[in-house]
Design goal:
Chain A is of the alpha/beta class. Chain A is built from twelve helices and 18 strands. In chain A, helix 2 packs parallel to helix 7 and helix 2 crosses helix 10. Chain B has a single domain, classed as Folate-binding superfamily (Folate-binding fold), CATH 3.30.2270. Classes of the chains: A alpha/beta (415), B alpha+beta (107). At the A-B interface, strand 12 and strand 15 of A face strand 3 and helix 1 of B.
Chain lengths: 415, 107
């Protein structure tokens, strides 16, 4: 892999950009690997990357039915934060956020991490109490967050209306080092780094079956033939239940659609991320100038990658009171992704009933921000066969044991 | 937009008039059941990519709960039937079979 640098740009400028190489190879699958990871989204690629970087395991294939990063990695609203209430969540999301800080240098790929600050608005007295509690919990967890009063909110977000009759802003939970990153670049950066370590990233290769023998996986049947493996990682988000089904076990996840949309591009008007959980809406401004808006999930099982229009209407209707200026904006694009929701709205990073098969799923509506931490924890689980400190609480058997990590109550909605 | 016909009042209700209630025909487990049964009832819901039976409530209409057969991969609605059914009606199952020969059937 040729490193990207200012010298590389200068060199290529001199020779009409003829020397750039492909960011990653697209090889045909080998017969056998040490590790096969199903799903080349952010989480799958990050798992592969940290397997190589932290454990020296590089005989790895990452297989993907569509194109790299074309699922939820390319469909989210790119928000990064770690202001969670429960200790296991705060630990893994803070690990992810801290890895994002230096990810561009680590991968030699600009992921455009922008720690621009993130506000979670408190618009009811219940939320005020909830976020004050989160601030105290975060202080104990070592996550830097603070409670700010409405006047400070107005200072940080001049376009906000803090005196709305229905949804007044009563303060906010502020994480100064939260922000956004370029979502595609995260997938591409990891893919390039994995490929440079000799891993195979195989796109347009759908898993059709999982073969196992004596309680252990031997390989996967794909549209490009059988691929043998010593260890299998399932990191497929929305279709986790389907792949688990092929492997012969059942997961406590349900797939629903989550939607987002962007406006026409406008001049810079908001340099922080604002989340308003009471009204199920969150908004930030992209580098192109579009207002990026995320909404809530639909309430029914869905695999179509498109959601119900009335959810968008509800989100915008509520956000217009808080941001009156967006009422005249035209919305350019709207899309949906299929998110896998668990009963407690926390992820699963776990061993499975099959000894050498591991699963990472259930990130629901909050997967992008977790990518580096999730990959880190999953790589440790796959390399050692046992979960490390970050993953141990996210077992798929916690529902049977009643050991929930209940962020559905803690986080309200958006998460 | 989803349109489901309420089997009670006969109204072809669109989604905003309805409230979804997830998997239908759940067998409820409580005190005296095994841990596995209780976990399965509470959390391991059916999540098929294809034919799914689910509960809906005609919340801004007659207010009654009913059941629906719907495809989660295409959003096609096969039919609705009253909530007082312990399993999908035979004619609905036959209709789905005809449309989806690959469908493995209810259960």
């Amino acid at each position: 892999m040729k490193r990207y640098s200012v010298f590389a740009i200068a060199r290529e400028a001199m020779r009409h950009h003829t020397g750039w190489e492909r960011a990653w190879r697209s090889p045909e699958p080998k017969k056998q690997y040490d590790v096969v990871i199903v799903g080349a989204g952010g989480h799958g690629l990050a798992t592969a990357y940290y397997l190589g970087k932290n454990f020296g395991i590089t005989n790895v294939a990452v297989i993907e039915k569509g194109w790299l990063g074309g699922g939820n990695t390319g469909r989210n609203t790119t928000i990064i934060r770690s202001n969670y209430l429960q200790d296991p969540s705060a630990a893994i999301y803070e690990k992810a956020r801290s890895l994002y800080e230096t990810l561009s240098q680590d991968l030699n790929y600009n992921v455009m991490f922008s720690p621009r600050g993130l506000l979670m608005l408190a618009q009811t007295h219940h939320e005020v109490r909830g976020y004050l509690r989160t601030v105290h919990a975060n202080a104990l967890q070592g996550v830097a967050t603070e409670w700010i009063e409405p006047a400070r909110v107005k200072e940080l977000v001049p376009i906000i209306n803090i005196d709305g009759p229905r949804y007044p802003v009563l303060g906010a939970l502020y994480q100064a080092r939260g922000g956004t990153a370029r979502h595609d670049a995260v997938a591409w950066g990891y893919a390039r780094a994995c490929s440079a370590m000799g891993m195979d990233i195989i796109q347009q290769c759908e898993v059709k079956g999982v073969r196992s023998e004596g309680g252990a996986v031997t390989g996967v049947d794909t549209t490009k033939g059988f691929i043998g493996t010593k260890k299998l990682g399932i990191v497929v988000a929305g279709h986790s239940g389907q792949v688990a089904d092929m492997a012969g076990f059942r997961l406590p996840v349900e797939a629903v659609a989550l939607q987002a949309l962007v406006s026409e591009p406008i001049k810079p008007c908001m340099d922080v991320v604002v989340m308003a959980n009471t009204v199920h809406g969150y908004m930030s401004q992209s580098d192109k100038g579009e207002m990026v808006i995320g909404g809530g999930t639909d309430g029914f099982n869905n695999f179509t990658q498109r959601g119900s229009f009335h959810h968008i209407e509800e989100t915008l209707r509520a956000l217009i009171e808080t941001f009156p200026m967006i009422s005249r904006l035209k919305m350019l694009r709207q899309w949906g992704g299929i998110v896998d929701m668990t009963g407690d709205r926390s992820p699963i990073i776990s061993k499975t009933p099959l000894g050498n098969c591991f699963i990472n799923c259930g990130w629901g509506t909050g997967g992008f921000k977790a990518i580096p931490g999730s990959g880190w924890a999953m790589a440790e689980l796959m390399a050692k066969g046992e979960p490390g400190a970050l993953a141990k609480d996210f077992s798929m058997w916690r529902f049977k044991e009643g050991q929930f990590i209940d962020e559905s109550v803690a986080a309200g909605v958006a998460h | 937009m989803l349109v489901l016909e309420c089997p009670y009042c006969g109204v072809k209700a669109e989604e905003t008039e309805l409230s979804p209630g997830y998997e239908a025909h759940l067998k409820r487990f409580g005190p005296g059941s095994s841990d596995e049964e209780f976990e399965s009832y509470m959390f391991a819901r059916k999540n098929p990519k294809g034919v799914h039976f689910e509960r809906w409530r005609h919340v801004y209409g007659c207010g009654k709960w009913f059941l629906a057969a719907r495809c989660t991969a295409t959003l096609e609605v096969f039919g609705t039937y009253p909530a007082q059914s312990s399993e999908p009606p035979a004619d609905l199952v036959a209709k789905i079979k005809a449309k989806r020969p690959d469908w493995k059937g209810y259960k």
